[in-house]
Amino acid sequence: MAGDVKVRYSDSDLEKFREIIVDKMEKAQKDLELLQSAYKNDGNNGTDDTSPTFKAFEEGSETMSKEANTQLAIRQEKFVRDLKNALLRIENKTYGICRVTGKLINPERLKLVPHATLSIEAKNMQS
């Protein structure tokens, strides 16, 4: 019968992880909003009256930073989504269980990477 016991984190542990995730999610959401407003903003800094060469250079770097911001925003959106999924796993009480080995993921790893779904063991098997 003992083999039937599901290994999972206790409700109080899950609650601690939930707090960490909610905290990270709020920060991530703010960062995402900043990034989105940065790349949606045309950023016209009034360089119309300066020399054409400078303007071209300015537009080039603006395009680059807009692309960089877009990439960052996409990564940030994925991070927020991963954190939301982690909250769902907490609700289902499946949080912190490695989806490959079925063992508990080290709590220290979860504190650093709260949306992890793989134990280090399983991650190493993939590489």
From TrEMBL:
Listed A to Z, the keywords are: Coiled coil, Metal-binding, Zinc, Zinc-finger
The cross-references to InterPro entries, in alphabetical order and at most eight, read: DnaK_N, Znf_DskA_TraR
- Transmembrane region(s): none
Zn fingers (dksA C4-type): where? 98-122
Q: Which Gene3D superfamilies match?
A: DksA, coiled-coil domain
Q: Which SUPFAM superfamilies match?
A: DnaK suppressor protein DksA, alpha-hairpin domain
- Pfam families hit by this protein: zf-dskA_traR (PF01258)
Locate the Zinc finger DksA/TraR C4-type domain: which residues? Answer: 94-123
Query: From the record, what ranges are coiled-coil?
Result: 18-45
Q: Give the protein's recorded name.
A: TraR/DksA C4-type zinc finger protein
Q: Which organism is it from?
A: Aquimarina gracilis
Organism lineage string = Bacteria, Pseudomonadati, Bacteroidota, Flavobacteriia, Flavobacteriales
